[in-house]
Specification:
heterodimer; A: 661 residues; alpha+beta; 6-stranded antiparallel sheet; 4-stranded antiparallel sheet; flat; B: alpha+beta; OB fold (Dihydrolipoamide Acetyltransferase, E2P); 3 helices
């Protein structure tokens, strides 16, 4: 009917907005009813938590699907669609355009919050009802705040009426890529997943029950969020590497830092939870980490998305959004810290441990990870503060971040393996030395051998990087050998969380190897080449065969064809492109890369010069894949650990605990 | 003071000192690693020391881009409306580098007052203006030296997902 009034316009967007408003109201009830139920000890009210969480998730799903449909239908009466889509845009990108800019990615963010809530409702059968009610109530409260924010300041369903544009402005060409279809949702799943851990921590504080059971419930959820974050960050790095045409894989850019900080704190939290579960120690510290992790993920999503990190003046241009974000952040962080201050002193950790013990190693792990996160936070916010104070425009160079991050990573890598094999409470230096001396020898020998093999010259930073990686892998394998008492066939019967841990730790070593090799042995050359020219980099001969022209669905491009030879063997045909996206008239570089486990060869086109020549960027990057392969190891390790059977304990035990409580 | 409290106090003092020292070191090393932004006017006025790594930027002056005949060297001028600065760069310019576009370069001033750039950043969004450049333009405009209305036209949208440094 509304459609007829506006001459054939679909009323679908209003339907989506209505669903979002419904989700907000349900979220409000989800906060109110179960939390009141706990306070009033009303069992019926508490049982409303699960169905309300399910209803909220459903309404949010409808809302996201509707926005996607608006994109697929090219409904340019919706301002967000008009700004981020185009009739010529291929359909998969129309769908991914849902999270291509601020409004839609916020919608996806709140939707994921709702879906995590649904996951808690579904998979927490063993949780006592009051605990579940608190957890879902808190998640409902957070959800309510952010849906309100979306509707008030960033409504993706807003219409441009009555003059509907005929054509959309198209999705930013940088985002028209597979990496950008999957990277933001994965990262958001991680960010938002930390809200579950946060809710568990606050719920436990409110209930005054920071015990082993709470830690055991929190662990798989923390791990799940951490796995998403790990993959999300790796995908972002991989995307930046091939899509930006620079061949860099990490820039210490605010956007990247914003994802790395919650990851570092979540990693610390994973390990601190282990101590809390197994030994009943570090309780209030663990809670604090859960609060930090979620706060940093809020900072990550909202400050980055609202453009504040680009410039504090973005704040001034859209004060409503900025003030709302700050208020929400203040409420979440301030409120949770207040609860922490009131409740944490009543929580006492009992138990002792000696200087040399697994607790000590894990404490060190936590401190190092937090210092790293803090340094990154400082480096990211410092330019903002200086700008805000009117003291000039500065940028913090990558060299500073490397200066901070590299030494911390080295120490961390050194203690990971020993920490994991050391004993709780107290260990003996003799025992550790006896079991790991050979690993140290192997690390030293292989570390020294690596640069000699790679380049014939001794390079101490390579010795260091390879040495600590070998050390970590060797110590981890020694641990496995000991646990399976020398019979490798017993490995599958070791606990999933142990195998997962070992795999994740080996993943760290794999990434360190990749970073070391890429940082030290990458070769990058910018050369002027015309068709027919060839150029040799690191023994690879790059022949520029010919230049051509390609027409894509919404772009046209100049393309080059390279044949790469290793000696006389042809190893790859590479076709880099220089695309011009028509709707925005934007130029984009499409790099061409040939990969294997030992090296990437990379060609990207610069700009056209005189006489048909081009500026070409040619790179050979050894062990590039290892950087992301390590992240895959870590993620798979995390998934294994999540499915450890002790997290699927029988409901009876939980009920028994509830009866005791 | 009972022994338990004493132990706790020692721990707190230790933590405060350690934390303070760490923050101090971080801030010190930070102050050594920052790159200040300078406008073409500041460079023209000789306010910028030679040999120090700075960032500078403005709109690329129409007709000022000159490529070397061989190799990848390029010279161009940027303006904030009040003064121009000359920049030399050897290598591949970013996709969005073009005349009239706002760019930021990082490098050092040589004896001739030319910025020898090691990096040139231009953003992957034609509507985007680096905030430093935008401010420099406004500053020059405010100083009443020349109107830059035509040059600085266009919406200053920010799209943060594309704000990876590499996309700059």
């Amino acid at each position: 009917m509304l459609g007829e009034a506006y001459g054939g316009l679909s009323s679908l967007p209003e339907f989506g907005q209505l669903a979002l408003i419904m989700a907000m109201m349900v979220a409000f009830l989800q906060a109110l009813v179960p939390l009141w139920g706990v306070a009033a000890n009303n069992g019926v009210a508490m049982t409303y938590a699960r169905p309300l969480a399910a209803a909220q998730a459903l309404f949010l799903l409808v809302s996201v699907v509707v926005l996607a449909l608006c994109f697929v239908n090219d409904d340019f009466s919706v301002a967000y669609v008009a700004a981020n889509s185009n009739t010529a845009l291929p359909t998969p990108y129309k769908i991914s355009a849902v999270w291509g800019a601020h409004e839609g990615s916020l919608l996806l963010w709140v939707a994921m919050l709702g879906w995590w809530g649904l996951a808690v409702a579904l998979f927490s059968r063993s949780l006592p009802l009051p605990m579940l009610s608190r957890v879902l109530g808190i998640m409902g409260l957070v959800s309510f705040g952010f849906i309100l924010f979306t509707l008030e300041t960033s409504n993706p369903f807003e219409r441009i009426l009555p003059s509907v544009p005929r054509e959309g402005a198209d999705l930013n060409p940088l985002l028209q890529d597979f990496g950008l279809i999957v990277h933001p949702p994965t990262l958001y799943m991680g960010y938002v997943g930390l809200s579950v851990v946060f809710a568990f921590a606050i719920a436990a504080l409110l209930g005054g029950r920071l015990d082993a059971a709470w830690a055991r419930w929190s662990r798989p959820w923390t791990t799940a969020a951490w796995v998403f974050l790990t993959i999300g960050i790796a995908l972002g790095s991989w995307w930046a590497y091939y899509e930006l045409g620079w061949g860099g894989w990490w820039f210490w850019d605010p956007v990247e830092n914003a994802s790395l900080m919650p990851w570092l704190v979540a990693t610390a939290l994973l390990h601190s939870l282990a101590v809390t579960e197994k030994r009943g120690l570090f309780k209030s510290w663990t809670v604090l980490l859960a609060i930090f992790a979620f706060s940093l993920s809020l900072l990550g999503t909202f400050l980055v998305r609202s453009g504040v990190l680009t410039s504090v003046h973005a704040f001034a241009s859209d004060p409503e959004r900025g003030v709302f974000v700050l208020a929400l952040l203040g409420l979440v962080v301030g409120g949770s810290l207040l609860i922490y201050a009131l409740k944490a002193p009543t929580v006492a950790s009992v138990g002792r441990y000696e200087w040399l013990s697994r607790e000590s190693f894990l404490l060190m792990n936590n401190l190092l990870l937090l210092v790293a996160a803090f340094a990154i936070l400082l480096g990211t916010l410092y330019p903002l503060a200086i700008d805000f104070l009117g003291m000039g425009k500065i940028s913090v160079g990558a060299s500073w971040f490397n200066l901070m991050f590299v030494p911390i990573s080295v120490v961390l890598t050194l203690i990971i393996g020993v920490g994991a094999m050391s004993r709780w409470k107290q260990d003996k230096a003799n025992r550790l030395t006896r079991e790991t001396w050979w690993a140290a020898v192997a690390a030293l020998l292989l570390g020294i051998a690596a640069p000699l093999v790679a380049s014939g010259e001794l390079n101490w930073s390579v010795v260091m990087g390879i040495g600590i990686s070998v050390w970590l892998v060797a110590v981890s394998l020694a641990d496995v050998w000991k646990k399976c008492r020398g019979q490798l066939s017993r490995i599958p019967s070791l606990s999933l969380s142990f195998n997962g841990m070992i795999l994740a730790h080996i993943g760290v070593a794999v990434t360190v190897v990749g970073v070391t090799m890429v940082a030290n042995y990458s070769i990058e050359e910018s050369v002027r080449m015309a068709p027919g020219d060839s150029y040799v980099v690191d023994g690879y001969r790059f022949e520029f065969e010919r230049a051509g022209h390609i027409e894509g669905p919404n772009y046209v491009s100049d393309a080059a064809q390279f044949v790469v030879y290793d000696g006389d063997d042809e190893i790859a045909v590479l076709r880099p492109e220089k695309r011009r996206y028509l709707a925005r008239n934007t130029i984009m570089t499409e790099a061409a890369i040939d990969v294997n486990l030992l090296r990437d060869v990379y060609v990207s086109m610069g700009e056209p010069l005189d006489d048909g020549a081009w500026g070409m960027r040619i790179q050979v990057k050894p062990f590039m894949r290892w950087v992301w392969l390590g992240a895959i190891f870590m993620a798979v390790g995390g998934v294994l650990a999540m499915f450890d059977k002790r997290y699927r304990q029988r409901k009876q035990t939980a009920d028994a605990q509830e009866a005791l409580a | 003071m009972n022994p338990k409290r004493k132990k706790r106090l020692q721990l707190i003092i230790f933590l405060v000192i350690g934390f303070g020292a760490a923050v101090g070191l971080l801030m010190y090393s930070l102050s050594q690693n920052i790159n200040l932004f300078h406008t073409p006017s500041q460079i023209a006025a000789g306010e910028v020391p030679q040999g120090r790594t700075i960032r500078a930027g403005g709109l690329v002056v129409e007709g000022s881009v000159k490529r070397d005949n061989s190799g990848l060297g390029v010279t161009f001028e940027v303006t904030d409306g009040a003064a121009n600065a000359t920049i030399f760069y050897e290598g591949i310019l970013p996709d969005l580098f073009r005349e009239g576009q706002g760019i930021v370069a990082m490098g050092q001033l040589d004896a001739n007052g030319v910025l020898q750039a090691s990096e040139v950043l231009a953003k992957h969004d034609e509507n985007y203006m680096p905030p430093e450049v935008k401010e420099a333009l406004e500053q020059a405009h405010k100083d009443g030296k020349q109107s830059m209305q035509e040059a600085a036209n266009g919406g200053y949208g920010t799209d943060s997902e594309t704000n990876k440094a590499g996309a700059y």
